[in-house]
Design brief:
The radius of gyration is 16 Å and the shape is globular. The protein has a six-stranded parallel sheet with strand order 6-5-3-9-10-11, sandwiched between helices. A two-stranded antiparallel ribbon has the order 1-2. The protein is built from seven helices and twelve strands. The protein has a single domain, classed as 3-Layer(aba) Sandwich (Rossmann fold). The N terminus is likely disordered. It is of the alpha/beta class.
Length: 177
């Protein structure tokens, strides 16, 4: 027996047989939570909420490894909550500029895995993902976005088939320091 959840405006259908992949831009959510609420994201709770009883195939968290050993505990906590970790070292350039992002890697992985998924959930508010969202949708994948409403690109919200606004339930999705 299949159960369907229907969101009438976009006719979004969620059912327990959908195969779901989650791709998390950890830095994006981490800094949004820190700057907006002086809190941390409860990634485990967000994962469970976003999956919504469907078949989780893979959950990948893209992280930047800094010089602090605190990162290791955080990465282990993510793994314990069901995430596969993909890490890159923070790049520090001669002038002191720092760079670390996974945008291209996350998109490539989402596209590669999309053949075996019905739904991709992007956890980021970065508008740079809009072309990837549109490409995935064009190829038959439902794309949902979970992020903070205040820091999420309005065009990304519009492009997504569904938007989970973390800010609407901070007690559930955030951990205060």
């Amino acid at each position: 027996m299949l159960y369907y959840w229907v969101d009438i405006p976009g006719m979004l259908i969620k059912h327990k047989e959908q195969r779901v992949g989650i791709f998390v831009d950890v830095q994006n959510l981490y800094y949004s939570a820190k700057n907006l609420y002086q809190a941390k994201v409860n990634f485990g709770t967000l994962l469970t909420h976003a999956v919504a009883g469907r078949k989780l195939i893979r959950a990948v968290a893209y992280v930047i490894r800094g010089p602090q050993s605190v990162d290791d505990n955080f990465f282990k906590a993510l793994e314990h909550q069901g995430f596969e970790i993909k890490a890159k070292d923070l790049q520090v350039f001669a002038g002191g500029t720092k760079k670390g992002d996974w945008d291209v890697g996350l998109v490539i992985d989402a596209i590669k895995m999309s053949r075996s998924l019905d739904v991709i959930i992007l956890m980021s508010g970065d508008g740079d993902y809009i072309p990837a969202v549109e490409y995935l949708q064009y190829n038959g994948v439902q794309v949902e976005v979970a992020s903070f409403g205040e820091t999420t690109s309005s065009k990304l919200k519009e492009a997504a088939d569904d938007f989970i606004d973390i800010s609407k339930n901070t007690k559930k999705f955030l951990i205060k320091d």
